[in-house]
Structures are given as structure tokens and as C-alpha cells.
Amino acid sequence: MMRRKTVKAAFLRSVPVMAGYVVLGMGFGILAHDAGYGLPWAFAMSLLIYAGSMQYVGIGLLTGGATVLSAILTTITVNARHLFYSISMIDRYRDAGKYKPYLIFALTDETYSLLCDGKVPEGTQPHRFRFLVSLFNHGYWVLGTVLGSLLGAVLPFSTEGIAFSMTALFVASFVEQWRSSSEHLPALTGLLGTLGCLLLFGPERFLIPAMLLITLVLTLLRGRLSPGEGAKK
Questions:
Q1: Number of structural domains the chain divides into
Q2: What is the extent of the structural domain holding 121?
Q3: Burial (Cβ within 10 Å: 0-12, 13-18, ≥19) of residue 10
Q4: Residue 130: inside a domain, yes or no?
Q5: Do residues 98 and 36 share a domain?
Q6: 113 and 218 inside one domain
């Protein structure tokens, strides 16, 4: 009974991500097919890499003939944010046992937004619940990729502007968290810190300085945040 309740609760928690991941996964599948990477390649990237925006960027790196060093540096830059927000999940994942490796691998922006408050439905096993939320989200992304690759093979699509879909999802997640929280100081810190670093360092080098600045400011302001927000950040 507990297992069934955990599966149901995890699925319901993941539903808001489902539509976004299926659609965005389709966009990636179409983009990969248009670049000459068919279903096996697109499926393998979404299953094994599972990096959202980095997969979109990765298509450009592959088609542009980027060097290994350039690919490594780009990946670190694009995914640097994971180093910062994953810190807040250390205590929750510490005793996850057999689930821990996959929980670490599958911690995307959207999965983090669903799990960062630490709340687990009553009557469910916490680690299994978080594992299933992560697994459902991963499955949506892979499903979308497969559908997009198949559609790209039979229907003509213009891929212009598809890469912007990841930005749109980030904006939607930000708006949802803004609406659901009464404490906006962390969000404003992120916005203003990122804008300042963008103006100061330029669009090619602003990401890592922005993350460092945001982390520093939130650490200094941690005492002023409400308990819920402090735990979340």
C-alpha cells in the first residue's frame, strides 16, 4: 500500500514537469534529427546525458566541430549552476542508499524545483518518493526526445528558435516559484546579480561569476530569510 501511494504521489508531483519536458524533448529530438543525428543518438543522449539545455548546446558543438577542450569548458559553464543548488540537497540525499547515484544524476533544474522544499507526502517513503519523481521526469524527457526524432523523420520542421524553448521553461519555473513563495529576496538576488555580472563580464563569461556572487549574497543574507526559504536555498 505504501509503495502504491508513493508511486501515485510521485507521479502527481511530477505532472507539472511532464508537459514541459515532453515538448522540450521533442524540440531536442527534432533538432538532433535535423543535424543528422537519428533516433539512436538522440535517445542515447537523453538517456545517458540528460542535461536539457546542454543537449541543445551539444548539437551545436557536434555540428560545429568543437574540440574536446572546448566541449568540456562549455559544459562546465552551462551546467555550473548544478554545483550550487545541489549543495542544498546533500542532507536529503545523504542516507538515500541505493537511490543516491541516480538521484544525483537526475537532479535537473525542474526536479530540484519539485524537491527543494523537502516536503514528502504523508505515508510515503521519502527516498523512494524522490527517486520516482526524478525517474518520471527523466522518462518524460526521453519520451519527448523519441517522439521528436520520429516526427522529424517524417514531417518537415523549421528548427529556427527551438533552442529558446529551454529559456522559456526556466522563465516559467521562475514565475511559478515567485508566485508560490512569499519571500522574494532570493529571486531578486538572482536577477540583479545575474544582470550585474552580464553587464560587467559580458554574455560569454557572466555565468560562473554570477553563480558565485549569488551564493555569497544568499549566504550572507541567510539569517534574514524565513526558515522555509533558508532551507530551500
A1: 2
A2: 2-166
A3: buried
A4: yes
A5: yes
A6: no
Residue written as cell 522563465?
Answer: 171
Cell 516536503 -> residue: 119
Q: Is 15 exposed, middle or buried, given 0-12, 13-18 or 19+ CB atoms closer than 10 A?
A: exposed
Length, in residues, of the chain: 233
pLDDT tens-digit series, residues 154-173: 877 665 666 566 666 667 66
pLDDT digits (tens, 9 = 90+) for 64-83: 887 888 788 778 877 877 87
